[in-house]
Amino acid sequence: MKFIKYILAGTLFGITMTKSEAVSWYRIQEMFRFQSFHMYGIIGTAVVLGVIAVSLIKKFKAKDISGNSITFHDKAKTYVKYILGGTIFGLGWALTGACPGPMFVNLGSGYAGMAIVILGALLGTYLYGIIKNKLPH
Amino acid sequence: MIDFIKQPWPWYFSGIMIVLVMLILLFFGKSFGFSSNLRTICSIAGAGKKVTFFDFKWKDQLWNLMFLIGSVIGGFIATNYLSSPAPVKLSAATVADLNQLGIKFDGKLNPGSLFSLEALKDIKTLAILLIGGLLVGFGSRYAGGCTSGHAISGLSNLQLPSLVAVIGFFIGGLIMTFLIMPLIF
Prior knowledge:
The complex is a heterodimer. Chain A is an all-alpha fold. Chain A has one domain (1-35, 74-134). Chain A contains six helices and no strands. Chain A starts with a helix and ends in a 6-residue tail after the last helix. By secondary structure, chain B is mainly alpha-helical. Chain B has a domain at 1-83. The relative contact order of chain B is 0.10. In chain B, helix 8 (147-156) runs antiparallel to helix 9 (160-184). At the A-B interface, helix 1, helix 2, helix 3, helix 4 and helix 5 of A face helix 2, helix 3, helix 4, helix 5 and helix 7 of B.
């Protein structure tokens, strides 16, 4: 039962991503070609409101559902992995039009090809796990 | 109300809703980051026996897997019950560019010529989807997060590493869009 709230949150996420068209391969192409404000508007709105919300949570020491303070973890301050990993991610994002969330949302929308993209993503994750220690971070 | 939901959502409303999802997860004591699910699934499939990276307490991540299941349900509901038949309002310039690549805009969210069951009979399409997915999976774990973890959660918390990752997302995306896609399509 305790998992139902996460399923509902995920459902809201899936509906939001579909109705915003952020799951659209076409919209991602449009974004990388700088031919519409749509995707930039979505991400921009989310980031601006997100920054405000997170700073308010910190300022007022907001608590979560179990009464614990909401905490934020700083990302490790090494930059090689972010730029290299990010670039590899971007190559795949533009090609498939899908980052990890939308892959699954689109699967629910009935795009069978997304199952192949998901399979590829799992293989890629596994591959990273194997060669992780040989990569510069 | 239902009429409003059935329309494609404007960008500002979409942005608000994405932040709402992030805040709901923070309120549940969790953080918004989708790609860790890929690692969790590898672990559940037994990858931890061979590779230490997958040998972790994945049961702590079950909540995120439930979020993943919800996202599939959300896609199903939105497409089957909350959609209008009107085509996506894609810019004319994009339609023209994609036409040049040989991809006809069909008005849907994703091109049937790449993602339909029928399209999977083509070995080249299959390879494109598999390799594209592989790059996303590899890259998101290497970068320690994807669009949700870095572009939304990370930037909201003013993390410089997340900004670097997002810049990387765009370097890769632009290379693929302008240099590689004209060669493979």
